[in-house]
Amino acid sequence: MIPENKIVKRVAVYGRVSTARQEEEETIKTQLVATREFAAEKAYTIIQEYIDEGWSGTILARPQLDQLRADASKGLWDAVLIYDPDRLARRYFFQELVMDELREQGIETLFVTVAPSKNHEDQLMYGVRGVFAEYERMKITERFRLGRVRKAKEGHIVTSRSAYGYKLITRKGKLGDPDFVQTHYEIDETEARVVSMIFSWIADDRLTTRQVVKRLQKEGILPRRSKRGVWSTSTLNTLLRNKTYIGEAHYASSYAVVPLRPRVKEGYKKVKKTSRKMRPEEEWIKIPTPPLLSEDLFERTQKQLKINYELAQRNRKNEYLLSGKIKCVCGNSRAGEGPQHGKHLYYRCTARVHAYPLPPECQERGINARIADGLVWSKVAEFMSSPELITKQAERWMDSRTTKATNTAIDIEPLQKEVAKLEKQEARYVNAYGEGVLSLEKLRELTQPIKEQIASLKGQIAKAEIASAEQIPSQVLTKKEVKEFAERAATKLSNLSFESKRAIVMDMLDKVVGTQEALHVYGHISLKNHVKYETDDRDCGPAQCGEVDIV
Length: 551
Hints:
Helices cover 48% and strands 15% of the residues. It has 17 helices and 18 strands. The strands form 7 sheets. It has a 4-stranded parallel beta sheet with strand order 2-1-3-4, with helices on both faces. Strands 11-15-16 form a 3-stranded mixed beta sheet. The protein has a 3-stranded antiparallel beta sheet with strand order 12-13-14. Strand 15 (509-514) and strand 16 form a beta hairpin. The protein is extended.
């Protein structure tokens, strides 16, 4: 409390808002207006204003608050004026800590909403008020948490933003009303088509997430929210593992924690708990949602993501042709190991890794990786240059291309319907403008997003039509072409890089079960990812057209 003989004339103002929503609602301006009016009424002179925007009151380390505490000893002002105690801090302990520190500097803390303490009884009542206010905030927070848990257990969506591929239908009316609608998901047909394509690209075309990002950019498909207007691999990784798409959303599957090894250790942090830790799956609350994908496609995508991770260049130190495919007779996988800095390479059973520090149950010895790779590749190359097998596989491949082209043509229809729907919506706005209901500025504001969406959809339709035309094979292989291809394939296969051999092995082989005595190889030949049909000369005779060439 300020001595009676000391007149407060110079004050510093402190304000704080904790969320972006409060910033948008100009809560900080409301605080400043109130404190300025209070200062004018009391004939105080405001020397400086310290404003922390977007900072939680549960965090004491804030840039402007620290600056205010540092300036307190400089004698720049006589008191600090704050709109309400909770603007200083949400916790009563933090409030008292800062106020005691200022009081030691001879500086009083004043609030617009709370009268200054005149005696010890007032100070005691202020403390009691602060403790009860903090207790009430904790009760409200817990009540909100329990309410969200109850809604989730009842099968209602508990989120403010829908997963990509869905529309969030918010609650309407009151419980018991005939028109009451609880918060739920509805499928967004346009986004759902994109989700289906992304999963198919991973599971069927075996693309990596980076390749998916590139293809989405090429197709002109934009993410829902992005400052750069491009998809990120982190967004795709989250999307590809989201079980909401097979009808099973989750609530409370993880909780926020302080990171053990934070990337940035210095400076101010608005949020301390920036990492998340998964809860045991039995504690998750499952919420039913309308499925977008089949469980088979989802599971095949998860399997391919695991393979992509194992094959990632950053996870490889030596070249192992059969990595991810070779297994031990005990059922465990075999992993590559290169003792003496890669001088010797082996495929060893992972049972010893799983059993460590106990002795492993499997006693199978390691397989020489270079010998195993050479044996398997020589057999693969022999099969891929076999005229009989190539003919059968090429016929299957051409049939699948024709089927895929037909399916692509069908997929265009929903896009065309969406374009027609948007064009009708745009026409209604134009008519409203013609009747004088809308201003020209409002018309532009409403129609510009629609025009952009129409342009994006038409671009996707055009590219899909071109792709459909390119996918239909027009030639049938002859015996001469197959023989020529087999000869050229044998030459090319013997000169491929390790990366190319690796891609072929991953495509062809299902698994290799091996010991030091024998290797049992299971798989199939696929021309889909390794050959393409090319016409070398469009003016030549039919027998020379449609030649198969290695890529």
